[in-house]
Amino acid sequence: MAIDYRERIPNNVDLSGNRRLQRALESWQPNYLRWWDELGPADTQRDDVYLRTAISVESDGWANFGYVKMPDYRWGIFLSKPQAGRTISFGEHKGEPVWQEVPGEYRSALRRLIVTQGDTEPASVEQQRHLGQTCPSLYDLRNLFQINVEEGRHLWAMVYLLHAYFGRDGRGEADEMQERHSGDPDRPRILGAFNEPTPHWLSYLMFTYFTDRDGKYQLASLAESGFDPLARTCQFMLTEEAHHMFVGETGIMRVLQRTCEVMDELHTDDPERLRAAGVIDVPTLQRFLNLGA
Ligand SMILES: [Fe+2]
Ligand SMILES: [Fe+2]
């Protein structure tokens, strides 16, 4: 299950053994890179960023740190190891062996699920495009970029499934994911939450707290899918999702902590005075919390 980094698209799915698939994905790649350039993190093309890149799906390989220029990040296709003898855990087909190919009767439902999941990944990168320019600290900036490159890889994961298992329809869907954009009036992203602007860090922290949590449950259920390639893809994605929620949770904790400290220092809960002192007052935090929840 080692990841082959000599390939143009790093992968552990023996992509070079399937020339047609490899060529199709390699022709999708330049558009992906153009998208990253145009709608990914703004003005970061030349910066060295300290990032985690997976070099294998084993526990010692998924977190490999180093400086990379983000457009050179090695986005690739990584599936968790297959589990021998895995059977379907729920529903009508409970107990039957998991599917290695898409069963005809579930083809359109599965395609819809994968497209909807895939569409959210680049959408969040688009929503967060300008946040690097107002980051509260280098620590926050690194976390933001780490999440951005991982959401980019999650898109790759879904595009791989579409290309590998859904034929011409799948390729068409993969192309459409490059045509829709967050907040685009004509071609918006599929889910409403991914068309909302994320203009500042409080909305970003709420997003990683709530929306990534929603994403985690979504992925956790897809990781149980009877369609084995989808399950294995999502199992690996979940290792990264934990960090996204950590960013949201600890971020909100830090904001709230500082608010409480200043309330204590000034002996007030007056929003005006607290804002003047440079912290976010509790009613404002509550409003964002309500919006996110
Ligand atoms: Fe994701
Ligand atoms: Fe995420």
From TrEMBL:
InterPro entries to which the protein is assigned, alphabetical: Aromatic_CoA_ox/epox, Benzoyl_CoA_Oase_BoxB, Ferritin-like_SF, RNR-like
Gene Ontology cellular-component annotations: cytosol
Coiled coil: none
GO biological process: phenylacetate catabolic process
Superkingdom of this protein's organism: Bacteria
One example GO MF annotation: oxidoreductase activity
UniProt name for this protein: Benzoyl-CoA oxygenase
Native species: Candidatus Entotheonella gemina
Lineage: Bacteria, Pseudomonadati, Nitrospinota/Tectimicrobiota group, Candidatus Tectimicrobiota, Candidatus Entotheonellia
